[in-house]
């Protein structure tokens, strides 16, 4: 079962996909848009990827504040998640994405990616961290279930 991870931002959506076994996440692309509220082409591209890769579930980053409050950006992510659920008919799992962009930035700096080039990759890498966190949690959940048997 393939799972799609999304890092939803005001101008971009980073996209990651799991391998068919649901063990690892790989960055696929960053979808760019001119206006934050213009989502038709963004949703159409996400739907294309869902069909192409036979995605069965979406994991969408939820950017909570460090104190766990839900701010404006998180509200927009929740609305986007609901729109995706209605348009695709797929389950959309909201996943705490605190510090994923910070971690993605750190990885790019350590990899000596030039500052002006980082914007091209940061959202896609953040989507990988979101999806991998979800996949790892599912793996550990299944391992705990096995230990109980």
UniProtKB/TrEMBL annotation:
The gene is ruvX. Its main location: cytoplasm. The lineage of its organism: Bacteria, Bacillati, Bacillota, Clostridia, Eubacteriales. Pfam families: RuvX. GO terms for biological process: rRNA 5'-end processing. Could be a nuclease involved in processing of the 5'-end of pre-16S rRNA. It comes from the Bacteria. Coiled coil: none annotated. Its EC number is 3.1.-.-. This is Putative pre-16S rRNA nuclease. Signal peptide: none annotated. One of its GO terms (molecular function) is nuclease activity.
């Amino acid at each position: 079962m393939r799972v799609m991870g999304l890092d939803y931002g005001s101008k971009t959506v980073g996209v990651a996909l799991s391998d068919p076994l649901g063990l690892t996440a790989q960055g696929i692309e960053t979808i760019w848009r001119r206006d934050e509220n213009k989502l038709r082409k963004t949703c159409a591209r996400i739907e294309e990827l869902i069909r192409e890769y036979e995605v069965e579930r979406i994991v969408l980053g939820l950017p909570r504040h460090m104190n766990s409050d839900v701010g404006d950006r998180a509200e927009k992510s929740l609305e986007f998640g609901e729109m995706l659920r209605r348009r695709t008919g797929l389950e959309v799992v909201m996943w705490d994405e605190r510090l994923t962009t910070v971690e993605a930035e750190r990885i790019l700096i350590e990899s000596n990616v030039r500052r002006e080039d980082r914007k091209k990759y940061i959202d896609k890498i953040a989507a990988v961290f979101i999806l991998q966190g979800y996949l790892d949690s599912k793996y550990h959940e299944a391992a705990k279930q096995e230990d109980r048997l």
